[in-house]
Amino acid sequence: MTEDILKISDLSTRFFTSEGQVNAVERISLNVGEGEVFGIVGESGSGKSVTALSIVDLVESPGQITSGSIEYRNAELADALEADYPDAVDGEFVDVLSVPESVRRSLRGPSFSMIFQDPESSFNPSVTVGEQIAEAVEVQRRARADPRSTRARTQGVEYSLSGYLTSALLPSKRFVTTESKERAIELLEMVGIPDPVKRAEEYPHQYSGGMLQRAMIAQALAGEPDVLIADEPTTALDVTIQAQVLDILSELQREVGMTILLITHDLGVVARMCDRVGVMYAGEIVEQGTLADIFEENVHPYTAGLLGSVPVLDDVGGRLRPIEGNVPSLLDSEMGGGCYFADRCPKAMEECLRKPRTFDGPGSDDHVSMCYLADHPYEEGEALSDEHFESTGGDDR
Amino acid sequence: MISDRVRSNLRQSFSESLLPKIGLGILVVIVVMTLFAPLLATHDPTDTGHFDPETGSEYPPLGHSYETEVAVDGEFTEVTIESNSTHVLGTNTVGQDVYSRLIYGARVSVIVGLSATLLALLIGVPIGLLAGYYGGRVDDGLMRVADTMLAFPALVLALALIGVFGERPVGIPDPIVMAGFAEGMPATIPIPGTVTIVGALVIWVWFARVARGEAMSLRNAEYVKAARSFGTSHAQILLKHILPNSMTPIIVLATIQVAVIILLEASLAYLGFSGTTLSWGYEIERGQDYLRRRPWVSIFPGIGIMLAVISVNLLGDWFRDALDPNVDQSERGA
Amino acid sequence: MTDPLLEVRNLRKYFFERDSFLDRLLGDDPVAVKAVDGLNFEIERGETLGLVGESGCGKSTAGETVLRLQEATEGKVYFDGSNVYEMDTTELQEFRRRAAIVFQDPFSSLDPRMTIGETVRQPLDVHDWPPGDDHDRSKRERRTERVRDLLNRVGLSGDQFDRYPHEFSGGQRQRIGIARALALNPDFVVLDEPTSALDVSVQAQILNLLDDLQSEFGLTYLLVSHDLSVIRHICDRVAVMYLGEIVEVGPSRSLFSDPQHPYTKALLESVPRVDVGERERDVDTLSGEVPSPRNPPTGCRFRTRCPSVIPPEDVDIEQDEFRTVQTVRDRIRNRDVDLSGTKEFLETDETDDLADRIVDTMLDLEEAALSEPHRSRVREALSVALEDEWEEAEKSLAAYESVCEDVTPALQERQDHRAACHLLDQPAGVEDTVTDSGFTPRQGDD
Lengths: 397, 334, 446
Hints:
The complex is a heterotrimer.
Chain A: E1 4-17, E2 20-33, E3 37-41, H1 48-55, E4 63-73, H2 75-82, E5 89-90, E6 93-95, H3 101-107, E7 112-115, H4 129-145, H5 149-155, H6 161-169, H7 178-190, H8 196-199, H9 209-221, E8 227-231, H10 239-256, E9 259-264, H11 267-273, E10 276-281, E11 284-290, H12 291-296, H13 301-309, E12 359-360, E13 368-369
Parallel strand pairs in A: 3-9, 3-10, 7-8, 8-9
Antiparallel strand pairs in A: 1-2, 1-4, 4-6, 5-6, 10-11, 11-13, 12-13
Chain B: H1 4-16, H2 19-35, H3 37-40, E1 65-72, E2 75-82, H4 98-134, H5 136-151, H6 154-165, E3 169-173, H7 175-178, E4 188-192, H8 193-218, H9 222-229, H10 234-271, H11 280-287, H12 296-323
Antiparallel strand pairs in B: 1-2, 3-4
Helix pairs in contact in B: 1-12, 2-4, 2-12, 4-5, 4-8, 4-10, 4-12, 5-8, 6-8, 8-10, 9-10, 10-11, 10-12, 11-12
Chain C: E1 6-17, H1 21-25, E2 31-43, E3 48-52, H2 59-66, E4 74-79, E5 82-83, H3 89-98, E6 99-102, H4 116-126, H5 139-153, H6 170-182, E7 188-192, H7 200-217, E8 220-225, H8 228-234, E9 237-242, E10 245-251, H9 252-257, H10 262-270, H11 319-333, H12 339-346, H13 351-366, H14 374-386, H15 390-396, H16 403-406, E11 418-419
Parallel strand pairs in C: 3-8, 3-9, 6-7, 7-8
Antiparallel strand pairs in C: 1-2, 1-4, 4-5, 9-10, 10-11
């Protein structure tokens, strides 16, 4: 087991909307080891994307991280920050939630980098792909090469007014140098774009979806990040293209030793990529462990339900075992005090009306689950009677 | 046709922002002026000759006075003209009551604005929907005509059309006067008929274009395909699916076009092509030579036009924000 | 054996671009996008046929064209023996009653301004259901009752009759769409990606529901999907589409266990398995992307990505080397060797040297080495190309012409499981079907 690079504990992110408070992420804890692929799997509305955004500090109003810590191991950074923010530093770890926003912002690129599901909206349509990647390279290079590098890191790069005007009038030109351009071409080649010299001169609309997704990965790699956060990176792609992109991510992980936090709804992608997995439901990580823990030793009925819902290629016939009901609303006012999954759970018991704590699972040392079944087996006698269930509509027996 | 969601969006954006309230407030005043003009007016707006009896000069608005030179016995003497309590906003160059004409002017603006927009809707929406839904040659033909119309500046086109049709005022009987509630007010009000038709001809293109765009995207909507899959006729699809679902942007556009028509009518009246003298635009023209000495003659109708246009535009913005199907106010920012 | 419920013969659907008034005025020729190009298949009664392929392969267009929601460019679709495109109004209306469709997007498939009751009742209104007169009750009452029954049947409460679509979740909306499709008791339902927009747990609910409805009402399904696992789960037979053509068709079991066509093999291999051993499984990913249907490759349309293109008999060359040569040939044919750019990049001016280095760079990118004599031939061709003698360059590599680019493969003439590939035995006379469409593949996609 490698050393952790990221330790998230008790992280909560809420959205304060006119409808009420939405608990998108609810006190989640997870550790990501250096060089591993950690998968977060869940259905829409489970809070998996908000978790990713919370880590890179891209949660936008009315959303807000309300509690918890995100500790990131970087000895150099810890040294630099120790004097100014002693509270945020613990050994080699820095709690990124306790440092000012400018420091957090400076971590985007060299520390954390994110790729999204929809590459089209991540590129400026009027600038060539090569220039946009070169720009990212140059921004990161300057941040590093600055003699006051720590300062630049902790206080963000300062821009003069004239610099601002130049970059506003000539977007990207300012950042594109011969070296950064060459690096951009290298990066494009690294993600398997054929003929990168020529493709670098093209505009985003000339790229197909799969190509653009690769280009976005290239851009994310510009800062040589420690942790790559990939939010549904292959969901919009065809299966043969998905295989190509997953290959590239695996290669990066193997060859550069990059840590990848992979967010997806697709259990097949999880199986192909991940060392360890967290299963999210209604804002919580309900079960967490190694791939084998989750696939073979799972105790949480939601994990089992998710696995039972997937039609499998190699195994024919038989009915799918879907989870009844629908994904719950995350409105604070509508969430009960017990286990959030109880009203859809085939094994709900009386005690499920009280919130379960995190129990150790039967699998590896890392295996934990927020379910009483991890503590003691299911007993019919304690089954929760039907009147506790609200009508969930659309269930299918 | 207006769903609960739209209604709640309308209510919410109304309560959140001041501008719709201002717009609606002004509009209510203008509509009241339109409806009850004979009761609100103090004089027959067409009645001339309300001058200062001694000097034959126009009355200034209440509380104001001005000095003018009058020839008395072949000699110019400077006299001060005081306001007259029956003419609240003074009188104009032919001695008509400015206040009463302001009230009646609203009538012309509102009626022309609404009827021309309605007419344009009736012409433009069906044409646009058909063009967009069927596409192909129908679309090609109709849209080339529309492009051609758009290529002319509205005012030039309007003047040309008036040149062809001539100015034809239409007398509309006034129910309040006919019922005997307002003695001494004109029994009919002249509405510039040509201007109404010309206005509609100038703006229908916009409705056609918006309706076409909506129909083009809706004809490929899956619910339209589903309707076709079980044999719904094209006419039914147009009426039941395409028309109701294209109404939102059309309503927003219609609101804004009312303001366009009000301005167009004022411009034509100012140029003297309206066919009626009872119009804000005409009043501005009438006062412009005396702007320095007797500004009230032009200023009050000018304010009338400004407020009418602003209020309609504010309302249009409100509708657009509230009716945008992509913005559910309750989910905003979530 | 009874006649199949649906028979599709040589179905083609082309969309024409640059076909507006202005384009005609400027004398531009319309460009045909060959979305569906010669489909042949049949569906037996009570059977589920899966139509699977990547995005842009024409599978959805095929589904809609079969239902005559789009007019076919060519071909015939027989439904219960009569050609759908030659039906008169009465026959067509009856066909519309018997054939229904369920769409992918649960959001855009329901009119947002209609209550779900109105939505489901719509087909009944259009067909003036129920037929005949029942003096006891008005038609209106009976329709309302039918709508409630349908909503209950698909797992919704009949009381939700008066609610609007936005009050429902994606899965529930999909159920409403299914209820609408079933309203008139159809025999045949096209399912166009019915679960692609849904979460897996909800997807499983819908798949089970479709399964139940099929056995309950004896429905025949055409399932259009990109998801091989879904196809595998509910289809009896499967047709694999690539660029508007069916490359393989056969019973689900044998197609999935013993795929014949290289494309089917690659497709199946690409699907990540939900299994702990998945990380160790070797996947030969397919290179490149689907070429544009505006200008599909000559011969076998899959040849630009195929891992086993057949070299000419008289050329002795390894498969990956052969693919490299093919890529170079395609690019020369497209005049798609960016000489000035490469020149700049390599910072050299000497043409002779340049050809060498371009070859090196290209080979480097293809991650393939070329052995002699192929290397010198390619180098030769490129240096000719550098002199702007493109046609000459093309000719110099003509010896590498493959049967895959000359001859369009046809589906084998066998009973059930058939594939269209030159590696397999081909029906006689297939040589005559050479197409000549002046192929230019998407630039640089290999």
